[in-house]
Amino acid sequence: MPSNPDSERKKEGRLFIVSTPIGNLADITLRALDTLRSVDLIAAEDTRRTRKLLSYYDIHKPLISYHEHNAAQRGSDLMEKIASGRSVALVTDAGTPGVSDPGKFLIDSALEHGVEPVAIPGPTAVIAALIVSGLPPQPFVFLGFPPARGAERRSFFEINACLEMTMVLYESPGRLGKTLKDMLENWGDRKVAVARELTKIHEEIFRGLISESIDHFSDRVRGELTLVVEGATPGLNNSKGCSGPQSSSPSAWKDDLEHLLSQGLSSKEAASIIAGTFKISRRMVYQAALEKKGEKASPLSKP
């Protein structure tokens, strides 16, 4: 009996990049469920979290961990399995793999080995937060997580200060307060939307100025966070290092502040006008106004 060429052909392995819910388990797509049921192996950033999802949908497949601490070795192992003809689904903690997790390394490795990754699209906190933020949805830039400390962190805020587009970034609850203060200092008092626990029971979307968000989130914060920040305004010196018509003199706003105070406006009134005109921190202007008047800020007073 003649051999069947198709039966002798080596089975080709596949790598599926599967988006999973960012909170509400009902947000998974039918295609994602079909893919998870059909693959030979699922590589997950957090196997405990993924196991809950699989259990909820009665999916029983081998699960292997793939995270930032084992990405190099585990990535090689996974590529060997794909090369041998097995199909692998890559999932992250929540949302779309490769956006802000080690999934990109496996995707790059697959491309280097001639394996075409297959995207199974679905939820991502970046887009979910952007569309409900109230800020312009295009153009926008995704900045990921700000560096935790040091020169890299300072450079992050300086480099992105003059971007004239909506910015989206992630942050952890423990560093939210520090990041909001750094944004205020480096980018000025812009509009911001802070999306917390998207699609979950305790979902919260705060919209306001950065200075207002600092007050709002002054207590302990819990949950996953996505920040959407207004871009720099063209032609205005609304951030450190951004040049424009109003930035010919670094002290231009201070001169205007002094003029307003001389006209009899209160420190609070003058600070509001200057902060709005120059797109800078209202707190900073208010403090400068008090210093010019030789006053001290009350611990309970707000600009």
How is the largest sheet built, in terms of strand order?
A: 3-2-4-1-5
Number of domains: 3
Count of beta strands: 10
> Radius of gyration from the CA trace?
25 Å
Q: Helical content, roughly?
A: 25-40%
Task: Just give the CATH class of the largest domain.
Answer: Alpha Beta
Summarize the structure in words:
This protein is α/β, with parallel strands linked by helices and 303 residues long. It folds into three domains: 12-123, Cobalt-precorrin-4 Transmethylase, domain 1, CATH 3.40.1010; 126-229, Methyltransferase, Cobalt-precorrin-4 Transmethylase, Domain 2, CATH 3.30.950; 249-293, no CATH class. It is 39% helix and 16% strand. The protein is built from twelve helices and ten strands. The strands form two sheets. The chain has a five-stranded parallel sheet, with helices on both faces. The protein has a five-stranded mixed sheet with strand order 6-7-10-8-9. α10 (252-262) packs across α12. The protein is elongated and about 80 Å long.
Concise synopsis of the structure shown:
It contains twelve helices and ten strands. The protein has 303 residues and is of the alpha/beta class.
